[in-house]
């Protein structure tokens, strides 16, 4: 059996989404390191795995995938019976699934673009010896605050974003949130009680701790 | 029976994604016009439907949804037995579904951000009496060309993006593609034979003809 392989970088938020999912499911896998600083992701053979030249790429036996959120959804379905259930409790219920799907779209289109810019400015630029642009940080924090106000209202009604159980919707947020907790942007989470509780819950999960090592 | 309602604007690409899906499925629905010019989407009645203040929002009986790609996926599953099948031929096959899911992520993250900027510069700005920034157009066209090179290679192997049948993956592109066909950016499609054929196929479908002006 060829098994599961992840081709990525342990510090990449998109790679971490996939690693989180595998850990939640207690699945064995091999992480194949892609050397981003050497541009390995923009060359063959990586481009044959993802023609858009981004980590992660993924293999499960003969099946080859890319795009982290397609991979996490594949894992959640393929290994539905194993480890943590990352789908709604009644996963065949099309309406319940649609509610989770909204949350996944919101993470991808409203949360991540803003949160990733803040992680880039305050964390990743520093790795590369560049300086944080505080004007960008202010602008993006204002946008993130507006998004988190919606999350606060949502989490007053439900324990997690898609309902009463932890799902892919919550999981997709974890890697970027972990980075932002090490920056002044953390205050935006702290200032909102339900968001703060939710951040604590999802980052304390054993799988979430594993990917930080 | 309360039926299906779409709250949106006929010129909005995300609204069009949902309308296309309903037409492909031959579903009856009510279209409720949201006055974007009047800022209706940022006011309370609409915000209760989509707290992020964007069209479209959607109702099917008691179920209320937003985010166009969550809505289209809901419709494709809920009405799977009816009209055009927008899922892979063997929709329960988790691996096949994952291949379609990749294509939906690629449309959302690689194609649409670039293509939407080109539509904004060359179509929507003119409607507001502003001028096209040709430097932005040049920059974004260079990015779109690279994305379409990947599409060209893909479509040499398969008739449609997710395989040999038309799926949501192709459908999600149609509104933005149609806008770009009315701009000089059209050349990026015509220069690539398989992309050109695919664009012709997907825009001439009866459902596409119904919603595209």
Automatic annotation (TrEMBL), chain A:
The protein's matches in CDD domains, at most eight in alphabetical order, are given as: GST_C_Phi, GST_N_Phi
- What's a GO cellular component annotated to this UniProt protein? cytosol
**Per UniProt, which keywords does this protein have?**
Cytoplasm, Detoxification, Transferase
Predominant place of localization: cytoplasm
Protein name, UniProt field: glutathione transferase
- What's its top-level EC category? transferase
EC number(s) in its UniProt entry? 2.5.1.18
Q: Where is the GST C-terminal domain?
A: 93-213
Tell me which InterPro entries the record gives: Glutathione-S-Trfase_C-like (IPR010987), Glutathione-S-Trfase_C_sf (IPR036282), Glutathione_S-Trfase (IPR040079), Glutathione_S-Trfase_N (IPR004045), GST_C (IPR004046), GST_Phi_C (IPR034347), Thioredoxin-like_sf (IPR036249)
Compartment list: Cytoplasm, Cytosol
Protein family according to the UniProt entry: Belongs to the GST superfamily. Phi family.
Keyword Transferase listed? The answer is yes
Record keywords: Cytoplasm included?
Answer: yes
One example of the protein's molecular function in GO is:
glutathione binding
Enzymatic reactions: RX + glutathione = an S-substituted glutathione + a halide anion + H(+)
- Which GO annotations describe the biological process of this protein? glutathione metabolic process; toxin catabolic process
Q: Give the GST N-terminal domain ranges.
A: 2-83
What organism is recorded for this protein? Brassica carinata
Automatic annotation (TrEMBL), chain B:
Residue span, GST C-terminal domain = 93-213
Task: Give GO terms for biological process.
Answer: glutathione metabolic process; toxin catabolic process
- GO molecular function of the protein, one example? glutathione binding
Q: What is its EC number?
A: 2.5.1.18
Q: Which domain of life is it from?
A: Eukaryota
Q: Name one GO cellular component term.
A: cytosol
Q: Which reaction does it catalyse?
A: RX + glutathione = an S-substituted glutathione + a halide anion + H(+)
Alphabetized, the UniProt keywords read: Cytoplasm, Detoxification, Transferase
Q: Start and end of every GST N-terminal domain? A: 2-83
Entries under Gene3D superfamilies matching the protein: 1.20.1050.10, Glutaredoxin (3.40.30.10)
Please name the top-level EC class of this enzyme. Answer: transferase
Q: Where in the cell is it found?
A: Cytoplasm, Cytosol
What is any Pfam family matched here? GST_N
Q: Which family does it belong to?
A: Belongs to the GST superfamily. Phi family.
Annotated protein name in UniProt:
glutathione transferase
